[in-house]
Amino acid sequence: MNEVRIDAATLERFTAALFEGMGLAPADAATEAHVLVWANLRGIDSHGVLRVPQYQASVDAGGMNPRAVYRIERETAATLLIEADYAFGPVVTSYAMQQAIAKARQAGVGWAVIRNTTHQGAMGYYALMAAEADMMGLAIVCNPPNMAPAGARAAGVHNSPIAIAAPALRRPPLVMDMATSVAAFGKINLAVDKGVPIPPGWALDAEGQPTTDAQAAKTLLPAGGYKGYGLSLMFECLSSVMAGNALLARSLHGETVRRGTQNSVVAAIDIAAFTDVETFKRDIDATIAGLKGLPTVDGVAEVLVPGEPELATLAEREAHGIPLPAGTVHNLQAAAERLGVPLPAALKAT
Q1: CA 32 vs CA 56, 91, 97, 180, 346: distances in Å
Q2: What is the four-CA torsion angle of 120, 123, 127, 128, rounded to 10 degrees?
Q3: Residue 166: how many CB atoms within 10 A of its CB?
Q4: CA 109 → CA 66, 161, 163, 191, 273, distances in Å?
C-alpha cells in the first residue's frame, strides 16, 4: 500500500472513536484525537496518529489510564501541583494549561507541575493555548532516560522537549517546539513506518554504537552535545524532581518506573502584568519583519521564524488532506479491527 491522504475531520472522528474503544470518556477521547491530528496537520507526524498503537499497548500494559482521576494536590495563587493518575497526556495537560492561564490572569503568572502523566503529544499545542490568550506560554516534559549524556554510550537523561509561544499582532504567534535530542523518537518511529533509514548522528543501537537503522535505534543523541544534555538535566530538575518524582534518579539506580510515566511543567505569563499587550504584539511583528529583511545565503529564499514551516504545512494539508505512510495505515487498521471501530474509506485496504 502506498501513502494515503485523509481529511483532518474524518481522521479526528476516527481517532476519537479508537480512544473511546480504549476506554476514554467521549470528551477525553475528543481532546486526545484533536491534539494528535493538530500535530499531523502541521507536519509533526512524529506526534500524530502514528502514536495510537503505542497508546493502546500502554493501556494494555497498565501504563496509560483511560479513566484517570487527576487532582490538584498543592496550590498557591500562582502555582499548582497536579497528580495526573497516569492520565492520557493531552487530557490532563490541556486542563493544566487552562488552570495556569486562569492563575496568570490573577497573579501575573501561572505555573503548573504535573506528576505522573503520560505521553502528551506535541508540546507546542499547550504553549499556543497561552499565546491565544494573549500570554507567553511554556511547556516542558521529562521521562525516564532515553538519551545519552554527552560522552556516554547509554541512556542517562531524557530528550526533554520544550515549547515556548508568543502572540503577535498581525502575524501568527511564534511557536518554538523542540526536543533536546537531535531528533525526537517519534521521528525514528516515523522512519520505521516509512521503511527508510535515519540520518547519521540521531541515535545509538543497543550496543551503544551509532546507527542509521531506524529499527535498531535505542538511544537518542543530544542536540549540541553538552548543550542539549545540560538542558535536559535542568528540565528534569524543574519537573520531575520538583514534583517529588525524580524519574532519572529512580531509573539510574535500578528502580522500575511504571511504563510511560512522565512529569511536566506548563506555564502562562500574562503580558499585561509587565507591559501593554498590543505594544508587545506589535514589537513581535516588528521583530519578525526585521528578521525577514535580513540578507540570506545562497539557496535560501527567506529567513523563517519558529512555527512558520508548520503553518505552511497546515495550509497544504487542510486543502489536500493529511498523508499517512503505509506503516501508519496498517497500524490504524489493526487498531480499528481490534476495537471494533469502522474504518474510514481512505484507510481501507486496496
Answers
A1: 13, 6, 15, 24, 21
A2: -100
A3: 24
A4: 31, 21, 17, 39, 8
Question: CA of 130: how far to CAs of 80, 94, 150, 253, in Å?
Answer: 16, 11, 33, 37
198 with 217: CB under 8 angstroms? yes
70: helix, coil or strand?
A: coil
Provide the sign of the torsion angle of the four alpha carbons 189, 300, 309, 318, taken in this order.
negative
DSSP string, 129-172: HHHTTTEEEEEEEE-S--BPPTT-SS--B----EEEEE--SSSP
Task: Please name which of 318, 342, 308 lies closest in space to residue 5, comparing C-alpha atoms.
Answer: 318
Place of cell 533536546: 180
Instruction: Specify the residue for cell string 547519521.
Output: 200
How far from the centroid of its chain's Cα atoms is residue 58's Cα? 17
Collapsing DSSP to helix, strand or coil, 326 comes out as: helix
Report the sign of the C-alpha dihedral through residues 45, 70, 267, 144, in that order. Answer: negative
List average pLDDT for each run of 10 residues in the chain, which is 350 residues long.
Answer: 90 98 98 98 95 95 96 98 98 98 98 98 97 98 96 96 98 97 89 92 96 96 96 98 97 93 98 98 98 96 96 97 95 96 88
Model pTM? Answer: 0.94
Beta bridge partner(s), residue 165: 137, 175
Q: Residue 257's closest CA among 179, 121, 145, 159? A: 145
